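Let's sit down with a protein and look at its sequence and fold side by side. We need material for that, and I hope you will provide a protein of your own picking. Once you have written the record down, we can walk along the chain together.

***
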Amino acid sequence: MSKSRAKKKQRRRARAQTAGPPGASAQERAAARAQTRSTQAPAPQRRPSRLDVRAGVPRPDAIWAPFPLTEIGMAVGLALFALGFVASVAALFLAGVGVLVVVVAELCLREHFSGFRSHSILLGLLPVSAVHLGVVYAGAATWRGPVALAIDLAAAGALAWWLQRRFLAAQGSARLAGR
């Protein structure tokens, strides 16, 4: 017998038990049902999954928590990205990339500084890449080659090192707060 059939059969039995004797009034049936509900064991608490809690630190909620703004932003960014790629429209493609960068950066910052998950390398590379892109588009076409790469990697590495220390401090204080 399938699980759904077994559950339906169990519900029918429970209803029959709480219905009371034949010819009972509606009030008597309601009282019997209320008594049965009060004697039933409470539903077991849902154990958090590894996606909700990591190393004893709960996943942080956004400030707009019940509204799924991050997920909507990802869907819009992916749609723009795909549409721009398929239609070969550079403006749509770049708009999709921009929306995705902003949404992913927000999510990574939130998770990183709450101590939930470390995103040190990604968060270290983002500002360095943005500054490098700005320098190149500002007209410094000579900012390229091994020297520029070495400076960019050194800056990203230093930033990632600092971010990793901040993550460990946030994770430690989040674990202490959870105890």
Notes: Residues 81 and 97 are 6 Å apart (CA to CA).
